[in-house]
């Protein structure tokens, strides 16, 4: 049995299995996060978000898999009777992209449902996440990476109902440089990563995302003024979390508490999963004091 502080993980994502009263924790788990050949993804399970069983291998690439490095930020969503993993991959001669994988069980094994990523192949993309709109239609939200365009941006595209292809052109949601709290890291470079959509109890649609501020790795939020994924989106002028932690997502615990999970600190190999209670406010979300 492991404690949360024993688990090195980046980009943590929690899937809550209410029927079996289990939390599943996924994330970037390769020892060589930034370089070297990638191993795959591992996951953990818990009853209380503190004591964890694992790790369990949930994805290991086949020999013919197109990517060999930067296996990042897996998310798992239950959709139409199956579990779908959205994760980022890269190879030396192909742009980074989000690939969708599928399994019949939360702990896998997960297998790609297409031969190539779902994000635009000529774009460097990462951190794709699934959003289901009010008409029960699926979307992918992802980052167009600053490595290619200097000012990182977040886009959305409609997906086919089997999640095998995009069926709309990319829609720009936000530009990192437009938020008041973001800082350029080098010569006008603005980072975007970790988008996650959350709908409040009163129906407001919020976008969590991460970048850099004057206190380090930081999570901010934006609000859709229309309540729909197409926006327009407005940045919250103040960040949600600004203490050297990020790539967050929101979930409700088995007892109904609203929770944010992030990795902190942001320096390898010290990253750990952190769980922080949240509350909804008139301005969106706030850390529970």
List keywords for this structure.
1 helix, 289 residues, hydrolase activity, hydrolyzing O-glycosyl compounds, Glycoside hydrolase, four-stranded antiparallel β-sheet, glycosidase, five-stranded antiparallel β-sheet, mainly beta, Tachylectin-2, Chain A
Taking Cα atoms only, what radius of gyration do you get, to the nearest Å?
17 Å
* SSE class: mainly beta
Low-confidence stretches are: none
Number of domains: 1
Average of per-residue pLDDT values:
97
Biggest sheet: strands side by side, in what order? 1-5-4-3-2
Question: From N to C, what is the helix and strand string?
Answer: EEEEEEEEEEEHEEEEEEEEEE
Q: Percentage of helical residues?
A: under 10%
What is the highest CATH level, the class? Answer: Mainly Beta
Keywords: Glycosidase, Hydrolase
Pathway: Glycan metabolism; L-arabinan degradation
Family: Belongs to the glycosyl hydrolase 43 family.
Protein name: Glycoside hydrolase
Word description of this protein:
Keywords: Glycosidase, Hydrolase. This is Glycoside hydrolase. Pathway: Glycan metabolism; L-arabinan degradation. InterPro entries: GH43_arabinanases, Glyco_hydro_43, Glyco_hydro_beta-prop_sf. The record marks 127 as: Important for catalytic activity, responsible for pKa modulation of the active site Glu and correct orientation of both the proton donor and substrate. By secondary structure, the protein is mostly beta strands. The chain has one domain (2-287): Tachylectin-2, Chain A, CATH 2.115.10.20. 1% of the residues lie in helices and 51% in strands. It has one helix spanning 146-149; strands spanning 2-3, 10-17, 22-28, 41-46, 51-59, 69-79, 82-91, 94-103, 111-112, 125-132, 138-144, 153-158, 171-175, 193-199, 205-213, 216-224, 233-235, 246-252, 258-264, 272-281, 284-287. The strands form five sheets. The chain has a five-stranded antiparallel beta sheet, with no helix packed on it. Strands 6-7-8-9 form a four-stranded antiparallel beta sheet, with no helix packed on it. A hairpin with a 2-residue loop joins strand 7 (82-91) and strand 8.
């Amino acid at each position: 049995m492991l404690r949360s502080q024993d688990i090195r993980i980046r980009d943590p994502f929690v899937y809550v299995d209410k029927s079996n009263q289990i939390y599943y924790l996924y994330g970037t788990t390769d020892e060589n996060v930034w370089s070297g050949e990638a191993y795959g993804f591992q996951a953990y399970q818990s009853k209380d978000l503190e004591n964890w069983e694992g790790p369990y291998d949930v994805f290991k690439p086949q020999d013919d898999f197109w990517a060999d490095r930067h296996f990042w930020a897996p998310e798992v969503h239950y959709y139409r009777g199956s579990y779908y993993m959205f994760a980022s991959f890269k190879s030396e001669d192909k742009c980074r992209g989000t690939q969708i994988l599928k399994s019949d069980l939360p702990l896998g094994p997960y297998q790609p449902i297409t031969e190539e990523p779902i994000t635009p192949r000529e774009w460097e993309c990462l951190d794709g996440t699934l959003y289901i709109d009010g008409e029960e239609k699926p979307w992918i939200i992802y980052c167009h990476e600053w490595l290619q365009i200097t000012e990182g941006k977040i886009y959305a595209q409609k997906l086919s109902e089997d999640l095998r292809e995009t069926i709309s052109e990319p829609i720009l949601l936000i530009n990192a440089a437009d938020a008041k709290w973001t800082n350029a890291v080098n010569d006008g470079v603005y980072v975007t990563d970790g988008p996650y959509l959350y709908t409040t109890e009163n129906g407001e649609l919020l976008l969590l995302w991460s970048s850099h501020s004057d206190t380090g790795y930081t999570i901010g939020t934006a609000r859709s003024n229309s309540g729909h994924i197409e926006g327009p989106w407005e940045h919250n002028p103040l960040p949600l979390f600004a203490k050297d932690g990020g790539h967050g997502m929101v979930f409700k615990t088995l007892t109904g508490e609203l929770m944010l999970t992030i990795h902190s600190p942001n320096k390898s190999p010290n990253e750990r999963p952190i769980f922080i209670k949240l509350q909804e406010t008139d301005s969106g979300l706030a850390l529970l004091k």
